[in-house]
Amino acid sequence: MEWINDLLWGHGIAHSILLLAVVIALGIQLGKIKIFGISLGVTLVLFVGIFLGHFGFSIDAEVLHFIKEFGLILFVFSVGMQVGPGFFSSFKQGGITLNLLACGIVLLGAVTTLVIHYITGTPMATMVGVMSGAVTNTPGLGAAQQAFTDLFGHTDDTIALGYAVAYPLGVVGIILSMLLVRYIFRVNLQKETERICQEENKQIQGATAISLVVKNPAIFNKNIIQLSELLKHREFVISRIMHHDTHKVSIASGATVLQEDDKIFVITTEKDAETIKTFVGQEVGMDRKQWIPAESKLISRRILVTKPELNGKRLGELQLRNLHGVNITRINRSGVDLVAMRGLNLQIGDKLTVVGSEPAIAKVEEILGNSMKRLNEPNLITIFIGIALGVFLGSIPIMFPGIPQPVKLGLAGGPLIVAILISRFGYKYKLITYTTQSANLMLREVGIALFLACVGIGAGGGFVDTIVNKGGFTWIGYGFAITTIPLLLIGFVGRYFFKLNYFSLMGLMAGSMTDPPALAYSNTTAGNDAPAVSYATVYPITMFLRVLVAQVLILFFYA
To answer: What's the N-to-C CA distance of the chain in angstroms?
Structure first.
């Protein structure tokens, strides 16, 4: 029976894999249990690891360190790939206000941490762990541990312990803050819903279709290329034309000449629609079916871009209209319809709305790929190129005035930044950044599960002693303060001064803490997508700042 003893208590590969598998499986299963409608999810893996670590289960230190860091890299890289496309666009329009308020929450959390550190004398490493748990941000925990390890060659167990004791009440504190803001401002949920509906009706859509009659003498006998020159600063595509003399529908090409009373079917943006209506003539009420009459051989179909060689190419370079007599009217990317301008760069996974004859569309399908099977295949080259570049970037020492030790972005910050940049700009360098949501989620969850399991097993030996003899109970109070004070202050500012809708404010508060349970509560309360939209708007910059702040605090106080 010696083999059982080695398997359970040894330090071999089989023992390490078995222990990690048990910790992760138990943690994920227990994380599904809801208390008052709230579950901790994958975070329970950390607590199961602490529990088993307390009873003497361990993994060789080198193996544990490697698996923990590799899991962290997989997690933050997947997060970066997910949030990257929306990272830069989140600063546009109303997103600026939401992101500034979210940044305020992050910075106030750091200030609260500093104040508690100076008042109580609690070591900064411990306080950064408490802060990461209080704001329910695991990448911040990983960044702090990695920065500490870079400085001293070993980690500080109180970072993980502070995270563990502060996390549960951190989730509760976020929801309590939402309820308190609602109570203070006497929010009427029905009125907030009506307000959201009014705002949604005013929102600009990505692409809209209009039918127009040519009435402007300035464009009589001009072709569509000449019209495009006259309106070169507007986004629009003329898909089909119904000639006044024959009443027949045909696909519009660049050479198609416009005559008085011709009718055209135009795809444009909401903001440009009024200008185009005024310039061309007037709008007419025509059903889309009228643009594809029964006797016509024209059909409309959505085709997927799946050929790698098309990634980053401009739509105009394919010359689909000139060579095959089809029109591309819209491009759907990540659920958003874009006007199919010639200068638009294609990306793998784009869905093109193509209008033309059956044979022509079949030919276009061959050119674009249209293979769902190919989309489902993982693009591992981009992932590992990104990880390699991220590790390289994270290892570059950066000198700052007043800090004698060079600062590094580390294995958390480097891959996160590279992933954000690759997901946004990778197509320009022929890197295929498309991945299915399920594939990204799988990579992310495997990474975070490995990381949390290793952190828990490593910290488990001293957990009880820390809670009982080293003031661990007070950390819970510190964490609650770090959670609630910034949320209540910014919640008050957002509601009183910026007049934010309460549902949007809930999403902002949940997103600034990168907390899915709080988002789930917000969605249930709202019954609409407003919290999720705000959450997604502030999530990218918040995630980046949480990682950065955790590292800066460690480096500033210990370097």
So the answer is: 50
Q: Report the SS3 class of residue 506.
A: helix
Return the C-alpha torsion angle 21, 22, 27, 28, nearest 10. 50
What CA–CA distance (Å, rounded) separates 511 from 537? Answer: 8
The pLDDT of 327-347, averaged and rounded, is 77
Q: Which among 342, 358, 374 is the end of a domain?
A: 374
For tokens 């003539």, the residue is 281
Q: Write the DSSP string, 170-189.
A: HHHHHHHHHHHHHHHTT--H
Weakest-pLDDT range from 274-278, 389-393, 400-404, 435-439:
400-404
- CA 411, CA 393: separation in Å to the nearest integer? 9
Please tell me the distance from the alpha carbon of residue 244 to that of residue 326, in angstroms, as a whole number: 22
Q: Are residues 360 and 313 in the same domain?
A: yes
164 or 21, which is more confident? 21
Domain count, the chain: 2
Q: On the CB side of 78, how many CA atoms lie within 13 Å of its CA?
A: 22
Class of residue 327 by CB neighbours under 10 A (exposed 0-12, middle 13-18, buried 19+) = buried
pLDDT per position as a tens digit, 21-47: 999 999 888 878 876 665 667 778 888
**CA 123 to mean position of chain CA atoms:** 33
Q: What is the mean pLDDT of residues 98-114?
A: 95
Q: Is 461 or 107 the better-scoring residue by pLDDT?
A: 107
CA-angle at 444, arms to 442 and 450, nearest 5°: 100
Burial class (CB in 10 A: 0-12, 13-18, 19+), 220: middle
Q: Does residue 402 share a domain with residue 333? A: no
* pLDDT of residue 454 exceeding 50: yes
Count of H-run helices and E-run strands, the chain? 22, 13
pLDDT digits (tens, 9 = 90+) for 73-90: 888 788 778 766 666 655
Residue 170 has pLDDT above 80, yes or no: yes
Q: Is residue 349 part of a domain?
A: yes
User: Nearest 5°: phi and psi at 222?
Assistant: -100, 145
Whether 347 maps to a domain, the answer reads: yes
What whole-number distance in Å separates Cα of residue 509 and Cα of residue 515? 9
Among candidate residues 434, 464, 510, the one with its CA nearest the CA of residue 84: 434
Nearest to 425 by CA among 541, 539, 311, 536: 311
Residues 40 and 188 in one domain: yes
522-529: list long-range contacts, CB under 8 Å, 24+ apart.
Answer: 522/178, 524/37, 525/178, 525/189, 526/189, 526/192, 526/193, 527/193, 528/193, 528/196, 528/503
- The rounded Cα 308 to chain-centroid distance in angstroms is 23
